[in-house]
Design brief:
Blueprint (H helix, E strand, L loop, with lengths): L1 E7 L5 E2 L8 E2 L1 E7 L2 E10 L4 E7 L1 E3 L2 E3 L11 E9 L5 E10 L5 H10 L1 E7 L10 E3 L4 E6 L1
Parallel strand pairs: 1-11, 10-12
Antiparallel strand pairs: 1-6, 2-3, 4-5, 4-9, 7-8, 9-10, 11-13
């Protein structure tokens, strides 16, 4: 099965979360590989109109496995990691959003396993105008089976 993540409403190329003295600039977002926080799939600009990632996984009953799937059985999730890219092109992660696969309704996951694609749609800017972070739960994220 594929998991397609579609992000809209991105925060822009810089941000300054509360409690931070120096704003982050040249911000990007990508999907973090399991157990490798510095390995981010397809970093995309924070000022993009829309961003999309597709990751491969396998579904075994109600459990999901793959190189980008984090967590224990029953608590699986994907990380979208926000990073500032310095002048040498090196990303420095400063926050991340946790997309909980455990929040996907069982019937949606079963339909996606059959159709081949589970899609997540979400806005990537929080209520203060900064990059979305922490656990992202419905209705902030919409999970659907598609093809």
């Amino acid at each position: 099965m594929l998991i397609r993540i579609v992000g809209t409403q991105l925060p822009g190329s810089s941000c300054r979360p509360a409690g931070i003295d120096t704003p982050y600039s040249n911000i990007h977002v990508g999907v973090q590989r399991k157990n490798r926080p510095q390995e981010l799939l397809d970093l995309q600009r924070g000022d993009s109109e829309t961003v999309t990632w597709t990751v491969e996984c396998t579904v075994d009953a109600a459990d999901v496995h793959g190189p980008y799937i984090q967590g224990r059985p029953g608590e699986r999730f994907l990380y979208l990691s926000w990073a500032a890219i310095d002048d040498t092109g090196t990303p420095s992660m400063f926050r991340r959003a946790k997309l909980m696969l455990a929040d996907v309704p069982a019937e949606t996951l079963a339909a996606a396993a059959e159709s081949g694609v589970l899609e997540a749609r979400l806005g990537l800017t929080d209520a203060t105008g900064n990059p979305l972070c922490a656990r992202v739960k419905p209705p902030m994220i919409r999970w659907t089976a598609t093809s």
